[in-house]
UniProtKB/TrEMBL annotation:
Principal subcellular localisation of the protein: plastid
Protein name per its UniProtKB record: CS domain-containing protein
Top-level taxonomy: Eukaryota, Viridiplantae, Streptophyta, Embryophyta, Tracheophyta
Gene3D superfamilies: 2.60.40.790, P-loop containing nucleotide triphosphate hydrolases
Gene Ontology terms: cellular component: cytosol; plastid
Species this chain originates from: Cuscuta australis
A UniProt-annotated Pfam family: CS
GO biological process, one term: response to stress
Location(s) in or outside the cell: Plastid
Amino acid sequence: MATSSPAALSSLFCHNIEIKTSQIYFPPFCASLSNHKHSSPISCPSLIKRRLASSSSPAPTRLLCTFSSSSNTTKLEFIDGSSEVELRLDLGNGDISSKDIFVDSNESSLTVRVQQAGLFRTLMDTRVLYERIKPAETIWYIDEDQLVISLKKQVPEVEWPDIVESWKSLTAGVKQLLKGTSVYIVGESTETNQRIAQELADGLGYTPLSTMELLEAYAKESFDSWASREGSKTVEEVESAIFESLSSHTRAVVATLGGEMHGAARRAHRWRHLFAGFTVWLSKSEATDKDTAKEEAKRLMESDLQGYSNAEVVVKLEGWDPACSWRVSQAALSALKQLILSDKNLTGKKSLYVRFGCRGDWPNIKPPGCDPSIVSQASSSSSPVL
């Protein structure tokens, strides 16, 4: 991936937001297509199938790697075990004893230094390990010309594609965690949604889809001309129908229409089928630091004033630079990883929600035969949905 300037990096804030637990019902899409000039099926099944068929097959997870850091020439061998990860670092030439080794670890970082001839040399310094460890159980020893470090995982069942959290390790790790569940990108800008959806799809080996392109395939003309003639209400209804068609598909990253194009995702009652996948909200931020961005995200998530507040992950952006889009994509993957690891049954719940017909009862899924609207109507008097 490309590198970014410090200014660009400081403008990005990423937050993992837990799923709401309140009972909310979203009514099914019931718009009549007979009133539209284009009365053909709007799911665009042939186009969707072609896109899905072109996606690459899953690549095997890498458990062993050797690489050289760009900041030094230390060679590192990484092995992922069932409950721990092992690092082997070349110590190089010279007589080095255990008294010359300094290993400093905490839950998410690791620094390794060696002292030779009165000078310290850094063998490894990472502030973002792929996942959390138990620093008190870190063990290290010298094996001939290598330093061997054993790190105990906090979550043993999570496979580590690499020692650090990077684009390469996140795409491999999150792909494993998603288990085929699709991802939906929502936010104020259609262009931004499409750019990030394409990058995530490329990294995950998923199929990139754009509701704007599917709308154009349905309308057989440019989106702008069709939308200006049909109006915002029709745009919302047709995109909602596309959400319904896509809800049964797997391994896709879907870019939705932005708010400036009257996208359906900005309306809370249009989210019934978006809950079939994981949703990432790319939100413009007025915050100047991570703490205020976090508070801003919480206020928006709790307000229910716009449909985007239903998103499970929020990536806060201070401005937008297409050249730094990879950074936004990486932040989205990091947040998705944290979200899924916070609830190991989350992907299974998504699958169950789809099998039950995306009835709008996410995340409190009701048994078959139960009408979620009854519960919603009972609670609507005290908690109206905007």
